[in-house]
Structure formats: structure tokens, C-alpha cells
Request: fold
Amino acid sequence: MIIDTHCHLDDKSFDSDIEKVIASSRESGIGGILIPGADINDLPKAAKIAREFENVFFAVGVHPYDKDEFDVQTLYKFAKDEKCVAVGECGLDYFRLPRDENEKELEKAEQKRIFRAQLDMAAELNLPVILHIRDANEDSFNILKEYAGRLVGAVLHCYNASPLLLELAKMGEFYFGIGGVLTFKNAKNLVQILPQIPRDRLLLETDAPYLTPEPFRGRRNEPAFTRLVAIKMAEVLNLEEEEVIKITTKNAKKIFMKFNT
Reply:
């Protein structure tokens, strides 16, 4: 069984055929799916999907791009749901910062404030956190270093091959989500660093409907394509595909314990 630890099933691109998508994923050996939080307004939809389908769970969180909608009380409300297994995706994303220096610093400060609020929530509720980090390795590392001893677990979603962020594995229960990017031709850095990640910290993910792996780039990504990531990971690590599946599923069940039920 494969567990897709990051799949936006609440995205509107799945509205018309979600039952077919989940059925197809099960036929491909996908036994569990985790819907991360991003836009707080989508939480009711994510919770509803998770309740309707067995072994589909969700997380509560606000993506840096959706920070203006942040409402900690709403997150706490949905965190009480029996199908909620994590906080996030949350973090820092400096890819689209304003050009004006003052505005840039204000944007960074606000992202950090909301990131810390969600890390505090995860620590308080003893829930793992799903991290989104883009063009913000150093600031993210410094914040996560502070929280390492308080977090029960954390996933670096779409791990960006940063050697600095890999150091977090030595500080706590930090896991590394590997998705379709691994199959891209320009993924040389990720291919190179993958063998350095402790095997008991590797996770499979799709980030569907985004980041579709080869050879299906350009199409909507789906949970069933997680197997393509597993095949590529096996190739890079010189392992059998089934061994990769066994390792990553065991890790997913360890950090997201409700997948054991």
C-alpha cells in the first residue's frame, strides 16, 4: 500500500470525478491520501471529502499565499475533527515578494508571524505539521530549529534539496516529502541529495493536481501517479520498488498515526 501524503483533493479540478479518481488510485495500490490545508475557505470541503472516503484524511492550515484569510479559531475548530491528522501546509514562500524593500520586509514579517502561530498550534495539539518552504530556506531553518524540540513531527513538503534543511533531520522528527519533481529532467540536485536523506524519514506525495510526474507532465496530477515517484525513487536509491513502498508507508503511518486505523 502507498500513502500519498500530500494531495489537494479539495481542488476544483477534482469536483466532477473525485469518486473515479479515488477508485483509480485504489486500483493503483494507493491505500491512503492526505489532503493538506491551504486556503482556509476550503476546509469544510476537505473535511467533507475525508469523511466520505475511507482512509482519506485532512490537515488544517493556511498557505503563505493565503495568509490574509488566516483565522486561528477556524483552524482549531476543524482540528477537532476525527479525520484531521496534521497542521499545515504552512511556512514561508518568498518567491513573489514585493520589489519595494519596506513592503518586502513587512511581507516577510507577516508570513513569519502566521507560520509561528501554526507551529504553536501544532505543538499545543500534538499534531505533526506540513511545511511549505520556497526561496526561504535560511529563515525557515532558523524558525524550525527553535521549534524542533516541541514538534511531534514535521514534513518538508516538496523537499527542495536544500542541504541546510536536511540538517533538520538531526534535530527532531523531520520527514521529507518527495513527489513528481524527482522525475523531472532538471531535478539533478534532488536526485543527488536523495540518498543522503535517512530512509526512515522518506515520504511519497503527489501535490496533485500539480507537479505531475513524467511521462504525464501537462496533465492533471492524481494520487495514482504516486507509484511513478516510487519507481523513480527506487531507481535512484538502487532499491526494489516494493521496498520503497514498504519504507515510505511505514514512515507515513508513523507520523500520521490515523493511517494505522
Notes: The first strand starts at residue 2 and ends at 4. The chain is about 40% helix and 15% strand. Residues 101-125 form the longest helix (25 residues). The mean pLDDT is 96.
